[in-house]
Amino acid sequence: MAISTAGGLAPRGYFMPYRYAADAGRRVADGYPALVPFFDGAAGDFEAMLDALDGYGETLLGFDGPPPEPRWRQDWFPGLDGAVMYATVLDQRPNRIVEVGSGHSTRFMARAIRDGGFDCHLTAIDPAPRADIAALDILTRLRMKGFHLSIDDFGTGYSTMSQLNELPYSEMKLDQSFIRNCVRDAEARAIVESSIELGHKLGMKVVAEGIEKQEDWDLISDLRCDEGQGYFIARPMKAANIPDWLSHWNASLGRV
User: Fold this and answer.
1) How far apart are CA 36 and CA 33, in angstroms?
2) How far apart are CA 162 and CA 185, in angstroms?
3) N or C: which end of the chain has fewer CB within 10 A?
4) Using one digit for the tens of pLDDT, what is the confidence trace for 126-172?
5) Taking the alpha carbons of 96, 65, 126, 78 in that order, is the dihedral positive or negative?
6) In the chain, which segments carry CATH 3.20.20.450?
7) What CA–CA distance (Å, rounded) separates 95 from 120?
């Protein structure tokens, strides 16, 4: 169902994209241009969903844990995400939910199933260890549909050199453990520099994770990394704060 929805073959659910990074070469942030048409097209549905959430306000405010119950008053999981998941499951009453990954979102959906009193099989699939993914042609089909695929945390765990050779990635994300030390550690810098060069030779965009200081940002710019991502660029923020952040960031060109 997820591949069918994400690939545009036959919508059978909901698909959420991942987070944002800033351009390290031009030192500017371009907003979310690829997503704007989708957001504009779904504006009416989104407004209707927000209106529907009002009916669940008191219920959501009463969620206070402990695990495995959901908790509304916390700062590690967006409340709007939890509210939408809870309301969508209650309203749609699906007989099956497949979630890639698991966490606080799973708690909201499980609570909705219980509160709704209907039969639903909830399956949460943890991305690791991503076994046998190379045997599938799904990623190739997504790339042919125009989707860009990232290999996350490159250099650690299951993000290996063999995956670069076997799977159709368009973006390489360098693990923050290398970025964190590369300003003062010659070996870490060599790994980062070589990885950037490798990614470019393979025709991929390269993103450095874990940019937390000015010196990190300056270094990846000097090494011609395409984009950077981390708290130096932006911390998680509400949608209403994005325009002000974009204006400030582009005015300073990554200098604070």
Assistant:
1) 5
2) 26
3) C
4) 554 444 444 445 666 666 666 677 787 787 765 567 667 666 778 88
5) positive
6) 133-252
7) 4
Task: Examine the pLDDT at 102 and tell me if it is beyond 70.
Answer: no
Q: Are 206 and 194 in contact (CB under 8 A)?
A: no
Burial readout 159-197 (b: 16 or more C-beta within 10 A, e: otherwise): beeeebeebebebbbbbbebbbbbeeeeebbebbbebbe
Maximum separation of any 2 CA atoms in the chain, in Å: 59
| Alpha carbons 88 and 56: distance in angstroms, whole number | 11
Average pLDDT over residues 210-238: 88
| Whether 223 contacts 196, CB under 8 Å | yes
Domain 133-252 in CATH 3.20.20.450: yes
Place of tokens 């890639």: 100
Q: Are 220 and 214 in contact (CB under 8 A)?
A: no
Q: What's the pTM value of the predicted model, to 2 decimals? A: 0.49
pLDDT digits (tens, 9 = 90+) for 11-47: 555 544 445 566 666 666 666 676 778 778 888 888 8
pLDDT for 129: 42
Beta strands in 85-239 (DSSP E): 96-100, 121-125, 150-154, 171-174, 205-209, 227-229
Query: Which CA distances in Å does 213 have to 31, 153, 154, 188, 241?
Result: 21, 19, 21, 16, 22
Residue with tokens 């870490």: 188
CA 99 to CA 105: how far, in whole Å? 9
